[in-house]
Structure formats: structure tokens, C-alpha cells
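User: I'm writing a short methods note and want a consistent example. For Glutathione S-transferase, I'll paste the sequence; you return only the C-alpha cells, no commentary, since I'll be parsing the reply automatically.
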Amino acid sequence: MIKVHHLNDSRSQRVLWLLEELGLDYEVVRYERNPGNRLAPPELLAIHPLGKSPVIEDGAVKVAETGAIVEYLLDTYGQGRLRPAAGTEDGRRFTYWLHYAEGSAMPPLLLKLVFSMLPRRAPALLKPIVNGVANKAITSFVDPQLRTHVGFWEDELGRSEWFAGDQFTAADIMMSFPVEAGADRAFNAETKPRLKAFLNRIHARPAYQRALERGGPYSYA
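Assistant:
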């Protein structure tokens, strides 16, 4: 049975969702973030040198990084499901969005989270300075980047119902976290009808709902 090292409020939720979509049996090993600093617990260092989640173990095979895990599961168990045929236009879009989700989409979202948290964690005497620096970074750099990315997502969903074509794929699973986090931090879903419809579609999927039951609700704050 596949073992998933799952951290609460993390991107490992997507791995549980993919496993549910593929109908695979799996075991969830839960880890809780430190409530003070929101970091992963040191116990994860025994699983992977970086102490990060997700990590899966499939017999003697251990795989870290969400995108690599998705590719491993599709290659090993997918039987052609949840990915377009290689060499097609949809196949190229699939590869792009699979890697874009972590490579380009998440960094500005993480920066928004970090800069938003800094003033709350600064010593009282430094709060005004830290708040000013953080707000400047957000308004002059992070938010413009996010507006560009969000506009890109909205436009892309005008080409097809899903990110890699007319069929739901694992690229949509990968893009779920950036879009969900973006709706929390970067845009009002009411102003982005295609992204709102995308969120409604993924949240209605039975496999998504089963994964939430297994992994537990998660937040982006």
C-alpha cells in the first residue's frame, strides 16, 4: 500500500486527491505544523533530508516533490488516465501546467504570505518599520506579479474548460492549490468567472471530497 506523509494545510492534499481519482489504496501518515511558526515538525526530517511534505513511499520507492509524485503515480498506475497523449497540443499544455504550478505560480503566492506575516511576528518596536517594508514589497512587486499570473489563468481557461484541454487531468490537480491560494490571497473570485467556475468544478468532484475527508480541511493562511 502507498504511504503518504501528509502535512496539514499543505500541498500534499493534492497527492491524496490524485490517489482518490486513480482509485488507489493508500495510508495517510499525518504531521502537524508548529502552531507558532507554521513550519513542518522535525519528525519529517526522518523521512526526507529537507523535512518537507509531501513524500510518498511505495514499497522500496520513495518520492518527494508534488510534481514528481504526480508523474510517478501516473507512470506507475495511471494506465493513460488523467493525462493527454504525449506529442499532442494538449499533452504539451499538460506538461507546462504540471510544472508551472510549482515553478512559477507558487513563488509570488508564498511571497505574499511571508510578507503578510512579517509585521505580525516582528518585535513591537520594529513593527512600524517592518510593516512599511512589507507593504512596499507587496504593493510594488508581489501584487503586480500576482495580477499578471491570475490574468493568465483566467485567459487560459477561456481556451478550454480545463488547463490542459477539454478533459480534466492531473494538471488541474496541480493547479488547484495555486488557484485556491490565489482566491484567498490574490483575487476576488467574483471578478474572475472562469476561475470561480474552475473552483466550483473541482470542489464538486467526489474524489476531491473524499481526499478532504482523508486529509482534513486545509487553509492557506
